Amino acid sequence: MYRYLLFYKPYNVLCQFTDAEGQRQTLKDYINVPDVYAVGRLDRDSEGLLLLTNNGKVQHQLAHPQFQHQRTYWVQVEGIPEPAHLEQLRRGVTIQDYRTKPAQVRAIPTPALPPREPPIRYRQSIPTSWLEMGLIEGKNRQVRRMTAAVGFPTLRLVRQAIEHLTITDLQPGQWRDLTKPELEKLKLSLKSSPASHRY
């Protein structure tokens, strides 16, 4: 039987079920469902939505960049970007000899998120602001490198959504199974993805 789980990964938790060092928190500390694996990754210092499943085909289609599935992030940055900086991010920036694809980017009010433990380090002399960024690719530490490329380091990064699935009804460390309507909509989005005709 296939399982599809949504999990709100807390800060400082590895996006895997084992830790070679044996000292850090992993998904195993929160999820007791056997044989499920995360679709894609979130860095240890990032928070937010993870989808886990034991369906290898779905895992491949959601994780592989050629299928171009939308991921939405709430990003707290140091400083206050001007409209020109946001336009740079929308058009794409160069990070490590790679040009990012066009993204959806907008300034947003401070979202209602649970406090991070430990909290970010505030500097009184430098204001912070929040962006919502929608990407169809997921290079290593891409969001952090994108905001840094236009001069605004990322302080806190929360993945808010994968396609239509969101963290809205979860708290950090909580997980639940997808509802039937959520799963049906997910399967429809997989069928309509740009590369789905190849498989």
Class inferred from helices and paired strands: alpha+beta
Low-confidence stretches: none
For the biggest sheet, the summary is: 9 strands, mixed
CATH superfamily of the largest domain: Pseudouridine synthase I, catalytic domain, N-terminal subdomain
Q: What is the mean pLDDT?
A: 91
Shape: globular
Characterization of the model:
- It is a single chain.
- With 199 residues, this protein is α+β, with helices and mostly antiparallel strands.
- It folds into 2 domains: 103 residues, 2-Layer Sandwich (Alpha-Beta Plaits), CATH 3.30.70; 93 residues, Alpha-Beta Plaits.
- It has 4 helices and 11 strands.
- Strands 1, 2, 3, 4, 7, 8, 9, 10 and 11 form a 9-stranded mixed sheet that branches.
- A hairpin with a 2-residue loop joins β9 and β10.
- The radius of gyration is 17 Å and the shape is globular.
Summarize the structure.
With 199 residues, this protein is α+β, with helices and mostly antiparallel strands.
Task: Kindly list the characteristics that best describe this protein.
27% strand, Alpha-Beta Plaits, alpha+beta, 2 domains, nine-stranded mixed beta sheet, two-stranded antiparallel sheet, 199 residues, globular, 4 helices
